[in-house]
Amino acid sequence: MSQALDAEPGSELFASYEADFRLAYAEITQKIDQIPELAAEPRKASVRAAERAIDEADEIVGQMTIELQNISSGSRAKLNARLRGYRSDLDKVKRELRRTSEQADRTELFGSRGAQAPGGISADDISHDQRQQLLSGTDRLESSSQRLRDSQRLANETENIGAGILTDLRGQREQIVNSRNVLMQADTHVDKSIRTLRGMARRMVTNRLITIGIVVLLIIIIVAVLLGRFLPRRR
Description:
By secondary structure, the chain is mostly helical. Helix content is 84%, strand content 0%. It has a domain at 12-113: Methane Monooxygenase Hydroxylase, Chain G, domain 1. The chain has four helices and no strands.
């Protein structure tokens, strides 16, 4: 672990956080060292305790980061270097806890390497097929999960495409409905125009007939007048 130096002037609170961090770090390493020697339930309890200590150490590092901003720039550089060391130490024990816990779980599942079964057959030989089946099952599960994810992705893409098509169809339907309404209005206007034209045509024919009748009547009157004037009157 990074070695903490004496606290700089004006950094007593930072030094207090360092002391708390060292205590949490010591507890973490102690729990990690115990994990390989413990059975299932005690080992899980030790792992949980180590995780809680890591969370506490993480919080302490965060408090040190905040406190560092309140320290004069002359002392900040050295303290910042120490803080980086604490972060590095914490990352290492996180990885070590994960590695140790996984190794202990594998040991419990498959048995200690080289252990002997009755008849002089090693436990590795007995469990080899089981391990292979487990690995094969894991591969199949991962493959199935990947296919499921691909199917889900394809379904989502298809759904998005379908939604886009439906949106386009709704837009086209609205356009068709609007066009039909426009055509119906146009038909109405055309019908009105045709009726108007027919009325005008009838009035024109009527007016023409009236005009012709008037002309004929005038001609008859003129002829009658001429005949009355030029023909000899009977006595």
